Batch of 4 targets.
Target 1
Amino acid sequence: MTKPADVAKKQVSENTSADTLSLQALLDLQRAAFLRDGIPDAETRIDRIVRLQAMLLDNAEEISEALTADFGSRPRELSIAADVAGCMIDLNHQKRHVKKWMQTSMPGKVLAKAGLRQEVRHDPKGVVGIMGPWNFPLQLTIVPAGSALAAGNRVLMRPSSITAKTTAVLAKLAPRYFDLEELAVLTSAHGGGSDFAKLEVDHLFFTGSPEVGASVAAEAGKNLVPVTLELGGKNPVVVDKDADIEKAATRVADARLVNGGQVCLCPDYVWVPEAKVGEFTDRVLARWRANLPAIKDNPQFTATINEKNFDRIVDLIDDAESLGATKHQVIPAGEKLPDAQTRKIAPTLLTGVKAGMKIEEDEVFGPVLTVYPYRELDEAITHITSHPHPLTMYWYGEYNENFSKLADSTRSGSINGNDFAINMFGPDLPFGGVGRSGMGSYHGKYGFETFSHARAVAFSTMGLAVSEMMTAPFTPKDVKTANVQMKLWKFFNNRARKKLGHKF
């Protein structure tokens, strides 16, 4: 088994990068190393996680500067909190618990007494491919990579080309902390994301849009590569009739502008009791005005990532307004927004949005919030269930019958009550979508299990052979045994049916 000391001896020079090898060569290199060294012990896995943490912590300022350069405007505080410090909780959890998680479990204790030993091994899959997004290019790439390393795998990491400067920094830093056989960071020098999706890795993990996710899954499916898809969607908010409107409006207003609205967990649209819509919208706009005395030249307001997305968001607003929606915007005095040069869009609230408008269907991923009125909760539920399942759903109000009705009547990757993205706090909850918002999950033990293979082991010391019982010749004793089995199962089934009131 590989020891940390052995890894240290194999460390390549700082000048070596993954760019010197082809995609296939890197995959072959890691797979050969995995087969050569065997399943890594807990000490080796912990060592790799510690080095992954060190890579971020040692270089936090350089990473933050690269993120600001990629976005054009992004606060250092957000980059440090989300993309550096934000990785540490889950990585620490992996580090603390991996020794326990990797142990073989023995569920079949009753059968063991009859001579049939049963075990479940938690084996690494081999080489894992991680495809990261641009909105949080470290957190949403490093955290799954940490889970894959904890599970004992080698990792090929492909951050987004959209945040090219951040990807370049990671590619430069990785060889200082990892041998290419352990973890390699790939760049556009290895082609596009579609090229990466074609690799015959042992598991492929993708975070991004549903449209690209479908393409990635299709490419991986050609090689029968298992995939985990962490996607997005239009996340709804429902404000209960008895909720604190000021608190709900303030928190939703803040949540909509996190990272310039470019978060897969951002609230996209809000259902508010009809009588309180005016108060809610007024308070949202007031919150934005208070927090943003300047926008265009404000380094604390995250810019839209690129021109393509800037144009797309502006078009969604213009389309809704042209078809009858009412636009409410917060534009500081003396500023002209939207501004294409800085890619800044004024925080926008839309009312009167109806079917047929693009924003009814498209995930905004920007500083735009839609507000709908409702008289009965069923109106909100009908709207939500008529659209693809979102990544998360927000509820403002008490943990009451209305909340239970909403939760029972809808589907989403998660539900957050009275605050933004609190399902991400702590490593004990699974993170993932459902349907169009994704498949599979990670964080904590869920991440370890995603990148592990639960391998069944059964070992017999019984005096009889199952194979002999299932092949000719079948004796009168075999016939009698089969008949007894049928009588017993019919007895148990009839008893259950009688208890349930079935007529038979």
Target 2
Amino acid sequence: MSRVEARHRWTLQSRLMVAVIGMVAFILVMIAVSTGAIITGVLQTGLNAQVSAAVRNVQVGPTSTAIDALSAGPFPDGTVLVLRNPGTGDTGAYVDGRSIRALDESQVDEIRDAVATGLPQSDTIDLPGLGDYRIGLTGNQSGTVAVLGLPLSQVTATIGAILTTVGLVTAGGLLLLSAIIALVIRAGLRPLRAVAETATRVASLRMDQGDVSIDERVPADQVDEHTEIGQVGAALNTLLDKVDASLAARQRNEELMRRFVADASHELRTPLASIRGFSELSLRAMRQAQDDESRQRTAVAVETTEQSLERIQAQSLRMTTLVEDLLLLARLDEGQELVYGTVDLTRLAVEAVGDARPAGPDHAWSIDVDDDPVELAGDAARLNQVVANLLANARTHTPAGTEVTVSVTREGDDAVLRVHDDGPGIDPSVAPQLFERFARADRSRDRKTGGTGLGLSIAKAIVEAHNGTVSVRSTPGDTTFEVRLPAKPRDPA
């Protein structure tokens, strides 16, 4: 297993704890080592001072031995003394509690050899059976030399106790620090775990089909935009909101597409059934005429065939109109089918009202326009189709005697065309889908009450292709369709 794989197996919490505790432990160890070194130096300096003071207190005579010198004055426990006296030779002794004991030959030789080899004053030697000693050297005019040593055991014990205490305190502090850091990191990473859990639940959802809704969100109490992890949670919630909205839009589009296919199939099925029926009727009539040589039957067959062909032609034209409307919508969706030029919206409205009067003689038609023409850049033929569709919609869905008023005005930078009628108004349940394809107020699809349901959707597509908007406001007795298009700037002349 590589180092990268091993590192990736560690959780973020584990890595943070190891990094923090390791750094703190390193700092504490360095502090302990530094403290031990400083204290050791201080204690050894004190011990050197004690050795210097003690060696100055040694009182020797011409015949004194080491035991006599140690017995003459108070010396600390463990003090070692070796005397080289011309009268008595080399003698050695040490303080053992309340008694003074003589050193053996090996111990005396160790000290004598250390002095003979030039061991500097206040240095350390190891005496067999007694341990490490810090020694000092002195002499007098009679040739007596005294070598006095104090044990390092007390310094070593003090250093050991200090280091043990520091070690225990350090270990306890690290354990306490580990617990505190674990709690702090766990609390700090709780929002991140909530983000991960939310993402995991969302990842387990089926989103490839059907009505998909993402209700999972990072809990509000785990989203704090003042922290980095909280910002991640807020960003994930925002992303899920957008994905949920996109999925809902996709579902609506799929439903609209299914309804579009159903409506288109219904609209095409009726003329196709008519064409098939009249074709079979014509064929049967012609076969009967061939079997019967009677002129009367032949004339009837010819008449029946002629009527059938007329119906076939009418249904074919109906299918052609429907297919052309669908093709127009598809091309408008792709940004095609527009030929731009200067369009006089005022004139276009006047001509459309003039064309609507013969088609709807039972309605009262009026026009309300300014003296100055309202011009814009657009496709005159398509904009004429917009006005014609709006007027046809008003004529078809309002009873006889309804007054329809068309107005054109300029409002700021917009050219505004309104078609108003005082008819019964639009059903509120139909109004939200009024501009959708195959939307019809009459669910029975009676040909007398409307066309294919594409007129207003074509009008909306044409207006939006001109960077405009179309809307409707309707109450009983007051219905207004409003078209807003970018107008050309006024002529300074």
Target 3
Amino acid sequence: MTAEGQRRRAFWQILLFAAGLLVLTVISAGSVYLVNKAREDSKWVVHTIEVENQINALLLEIRRAESGVRGYLLTGEDNFRTDHEKAVAAIIPALDKLTRQSVDNPGQRENVEKLSTAIETRLSQFAQEMAFIRQGQPDKATALVRELAAQDATARIASVANTMMREEERLFRLRTTNSDRSQTLAASMTGIGSGLVVVLALISIWLVRRSARVRDEAEARLREAYANLETVVDERTADLREANDEIQRFAYIVSHDLRSPLVNIMGFTSELDELGGDIFRRIGSLAHAPAEGAPLAPAAPGEIALEGGDKQLQEDFSEALGFIKSSIAKMDRLISAILNLTREGRREFQPVKVDTRELIEAIVTTLAHQAAEAQAEIHVEPLPDLVSDRLALEQIFSNLIDNAIKYLKPGVPGEIRIRGRTKLGYAIFEVSDNGRGIDPKDHQRIFDLFRRAGTQDKPGQGIGLAHVRALVRRLGGTMSVSSELNTGSTFTITLPIAWNVSNRNRDR
């Protein structure tokens, strides 16, 4: 699949995920809203039923009170009086409860006020009737009953109650309709949402299966390409090793063959030096020869009495000969270094368990005299152990510590610190100092063969760090430097904790 196809597929997957999340959010929010609304509508339906029940209960208590007073008037039995008193006692609480239940409806509040007035009137009439009966004046009580019947106070109470009942019935129908609608909408939204979720799930399954099929095909192609790549890499690696071996053999042959003419040059330079001495002694003796016919005065052995142009010629000859000798010595050192590098490159590494702290402390002991002369202190902190080539590690750390001592700032007490830690199967070593430092523009230069940085006031051929980095790479690690001028340097080496036969000589 092309990059454009992958981006398009990723876009549609993200869009599908966003759509599913949006649908779920809308369904959840809508369902919560509709369920709450249905619950609220149902609550109002129940409230309407409670108000209707409370009106009926109030009317029932009023009828009980009327029946009790009339029965007591006709029979004089106490059970009618008791029943009347209980009914009267229940009327006011029932009216208060109805008042609280109707507080949300302004129309019903007005009806409750009318009902309260009629009920108060009727209760006072009940009290008068019961008072005549208790006083033994049943005729007056009977006349009062007839008079009140003509005023029809109970009918007014019933009329107001019927008005309230009709209003509650209207509200009941309206609220029932709203409740049914809310429940229907909630059920519809749940069904539609469930359907959308199912559709999105099916689309997701289709996309996942399609992605899995594409991924399997890509993995198959990748495995095939990887197999081909391994073959190509093995071929290239073999070619590189053969070329590297050829380069090392060539470097060894060239270095070895260069030494032979270099030895001849060194020999003839020595002879030229002796011959020059003889020539300039001869010139000196001729310059001091006596007059014609007089014998030559013998010159003292080793003495050359030259003056003027002859003396300058002798000095120029000696200076040129000195340059030749120093160049020969430098070339000899470079050839020796190249020979050592080629010999080291042919050596096979042997992984062994190395106590790194013990190894570095031994190196520090051998460099103790140089450190004392440079007024430097070397601190070795706890270090992780390795399975690696011991000789290569000795060469790496010996070179770094020796450089740290060599390039300290004059007159400043040196402090060199070696520390280490582990991370993800690798050991990380740091060799830091407070020396003269390295300009950032020279950080890569110092690892090049025969290249040096900074003031060249110390002996060396520019091979050490290049050799160290080559060894680190052969051990499967990396090397870097962090430094600024006059602030010291820190060389960081990362090596595998367990370097084994599977990667032996991998970088040769």
Target 4
Amino acid sequence: MTSTRHRHLALGIALALPAAVLAGCATGEASPAASSGTSEHDHDHDHDEHEEGGHGTEAATDTPRIALTYDGGIVVLDGTSLEQVADLPVDGFTRLNPAGDERHVIVSAGDAFRVLDLGTWGEPHGNHSHFYTSDPAFTKVEFAANHPGHVVRHAGRTVLFNDGSGLVESFDPHDLADGAPETTTYTTPSPHHGVAVELESGDLLVTDGTEDSRSSVVVLDSGRHEVARTDACPGVHGEAVAADEAVVVGCEDGVVVYAGGELTKIASPDAYGRIGNQAGSDESPVVLGDYKSDPDAELERPTRVSLVDTVSKQITLVDTGASYTFRSLGRGPHGEALVLGTDGALRVIDPASGAVTSTIAVIDAWTEPDDWQAPRPTLFVLDHTAYVTDPATKAVHAVDIESGEVYASATLDVVPNELTGVSGLPE
């Protein structure tokens, strides 16, 4: 069987084809604005350096990298060998998300969204691409935030949600290599723990609510005028985008789907059936979600996951046989639904049928901690590889999703918590 690394290299070559072959602030109002970040160099100078590989060292091929948080910093590893590349000190609890350009990640820490350059990128050049690496480092770009919340990437835009103010900032992540990107902003009527998605059309899907209650999903046009709304989503939380740009937002009693210009509520099979964390794929019309049915539980440990079909508008529940957490969900390269269970196994689910097609033993059995910020095994998927952390043994493993082979493992000097990564491939 072709190895994961060889498949990854083949993807890099495919993406390096000629450009001709490649698919080429007041509340309620949108306004272009410069971000609060600053860049180390002027824009033109940065652009020229970036086109020639910047300060990087040229590599033979693309170099995926992953980042893991721990109490006191962030460790960066080579995504293939799992060898350590960098250890960056960071104070306090941090959260990680890919920035959307396959080079940078967004670090939610303290009162800002900070931009971390993982030091791997590619530049198209005629009928091929050049690849570069450099030392991972925080850039001088950051976005001030009062309680930084969700980071959403879709349609070439990255959207930051500020829970403490309701500020929504959107930008093109590919501009991060040149310094602070130009942003578009919108502010929700009231601050709340929310989420926003910018669509290909420029429309904005955003939640609406307060710190005490939230139950609304609103769609705004490119001028940020309301074009659709539903208030039938109690406890609204989380989002995912499926094939054909169907957006799914979680509720305490089901989900809301935005597709074809319409908002549709899909009720859960149970009176209380909370779906709050989801994983979508462009390869599938089905969104994978968690599923909790006990409204009185302090910490419910469910064994069922939800599959939301955005075409038939139905929710199917699949019992995986093991509990899981909000960091257990992912999607494979062909739309496979992936769930990391507390029995230490990674389950691969056919989203169309709901059948568990394979169960891959990765780590020992574990128990979800009571504190949501405490380290627990975490799943992150990049191309054909599923990365799984094991805080109990300070380990991280790389799993070939299709063959089920755990092809690389590494033991860290720290206890890993959150996990993300980038491919280092050009757009």
